Amino acid sequence: MLVFWKENLVLLSVPKTGTTAIQGTLAPHATMVLRDPPQLKHSPCYRYNRFLRPLLSQAGGQTPEVMAVVRHPIDWLGSWYRYRSRNNLVGHANSTRDVSFDDFVIEYCKERPAPFARVGSQAKFLQVNGELGVDYLFRYEAQDKIIAFLEDRLQKPINLKHLNVSPKQELTLSSDLETKLRQKRPEEFDVWEIGRS
């Protein structure tokens, strides 16, 4: 999470949406950088609203606007799947090394997924009481719009470096399984649709 005091902006870090690269580039320009532990770096909207927003509002008499990035649900799940297939997770309960992408998505659709498919929810991260909790939501796929917004807001050029990139791997999802995912987790697709493209 990044706080830009003068620019009155907070950037929430939705996991697996490229915000680590943004944070790595913009941290030197931020007033506050929350990078560790991961639970703090990746604080969802409800946690931000409960703890940090009141603190910032009381300190400056203004409520910062909040920005976030959302990724297409299938691509987002693919990134998690690839990330959890890396060598240092082999033998751990959340390793996907010996699991197919289809099986990973099937497990994710369950009410209580196995550890390897417990990756959270972008919709839950971004919503507060069923409503979108951010002022600006950009689709991960619209990198040019994300950069343009931040350059305009921060009044500085931005050149992102790729950080925390998942291992390369071609992944496809059968149409039947995509239909099941959309039926089981419609809120994930709904929140992505809201994002600026």
Structural notes for this entry:
By secondary structure, the protein is α/β, with parallel strands linked by helices. It has one domain (2-194): Rossmann fold (3-Layer(aba) Sandwich). Helix content is 42%, strand content 11%. It is built from nine helices and seven strands, in the order ββαβααβαααβββααα. It has helices at 19-26, 38-41, 45-60, 73-83, 101-108, 122-126, 143-154, 175-184, 186-194, and strands spanning 2-4, 9-11, 32-33, 65-70, 127-128, 131-132, 136-139. The strands form two sheets. Strands 3-1-2-4-7 form a five-stranded mixed sheet. The protein has a two-stranded antiparallel ribbon with strand order 5-6. Strand 1 (2-4) and strand 2 form a beta hairpin. The longest helix is centred in the first third of the chain and has 16 residues, at 45-60. The model has no long low-confidence stretch (mean pLDDT 94).
Characterize this entry briefly.
The chain is an alpha/beta fold. Helices cover 42% and strands 11% of the residues.
Could you outline the blueprint of secondary structure elements for this entry?
Elements lengths: L1 E3 L4 E3 L7 H8 L5 E2 L4 H4 L3 H16 L4 E6 L2 H11 L17 H8 L13 H5 E2 L2 E2 L3 E4 L3 H12 L20 H10 L1 H9 L3
Parallel strand pairs: 2-4, 4-7
Antiparallel strand pairs: 1-2, 1-3, 5-6
Query: What would you give as the CATH superfamily?
Result: P-loop containing nucleotide triphosphate hydrolases
The CATH topology, please?
Answer: Rossmann fold
Return the structural class. Answer: alpha/beta
Element order: H for helix, E for strand: EEHEHHEHHHEEEHHH
Number of domains: 1
Strand portion: 5-15%
- Please, how many helices? 9
Q: Main β-sheet: number of strands, strand sense, barrel status?
A: 5 strands, mixed
